[in-house]
Write a structure and sequence with these properties.
Mean pLDDT: 92
Radius of gyration: 22 Å
CATH architecture of the largest domain: 3-Layer(aba) Sandwich
Number of helices: 11
Low-confidence stretches: 1-22
CATH class of the largest domain: Alpha Beta
CATH topology of the largest domain: Rossmann fold
CATH superfamily of the largest domain: Response regulator
Largest sheet: 6 strands, parallel
Shape: elongated
Distance between the termini: 42 Å
Strand order of the largest sheet: 2-1-3-4-5-11
Amino acid sequence: MKRSLLNAFVCAVMLGVNMSYAQSEPRVGVTIYKYDDNFMMLMRKEMNKEIENFRHLKWFMNDAQNSQVKQLNQVEVLLNHKVNVLAVNIVHPNESKTIVEKAKANNVPIVFFNRDPSKQAMESYEKAYFVSSNPQEAGEIQGQLIAKAWRANPHFDLNRDGKLQFVLLKGELSEVSTLRSQAVIDELNRQGIATEEVYSDTAMWRSTIARNKMNEWLVAKRANEIEVVISNNDEMAIGALDALNAHEKKLPLFGIDALPEALALIKSGQMSGTVLNDSVEQGKVVVQLAANLAQGKPATQGTEWENSPSKTIYIPHIGVNKENLEQFLK
């Protein structure tokens, strides 16, 4: 306890020194919901690369550690130290209105990214922006990958009833998870593939919870009916794979994000496909918008979205399977 308090004090002192030293420079305050989230680790890496192009600005990065209370405190500190713009990867969407109100009261623009703020919060402030990817598009492309694999591999239909029986691992309860989950099944049905849900549940985007959930399903009454495993993201898909391997069972497995680990698993044949959720481009655009706003420029000036009237920028998804895998391997 004493050590954590000391660390907090040292960080606060360092933050105060840096802030006071940089008062004449445009300042950007960033808070990320959780540094050790696999996708956010990739995105933060790309953000740090892009920040090198804006070294005349001062950037203050914060890890909210999946705590909305901590993130709200970080926002307060950043605003008190007169940052020119906030960039927020929000912990809980239902708190986006609170953060917008704080930013608006200080006339500070805000760029939400990756995790959706509420529609109400976005509409309440003309200086609120959002950078992410369209979750419905992600689900649709995942459905296209599954449909293609299903038609090319008749043996996937284990009971030969012409119907795709699936389990679905969902992210935490949110619009993103809901849209991805609905869109993947809608796309399969749109392509004329009959589907039947065997089991579905949230695994909170986390591999450990997904592994436990998949373990439960593999010993449940309808375990032998499972033909395809669908996951809202790659991290949960990897957890499901751990469970499948423990039960010495192989099933088609599809995720979303195109994490390096997932790409390696597609190459080895342990995963069937994923959907690129472009952390590189998202990271670049967040930094570019925040840098523009910090300098008093229009948010999208000098970007490929300069002529877009929307305050929401969606980075396109790309389906990945063995056919096009090589272009995504680094």
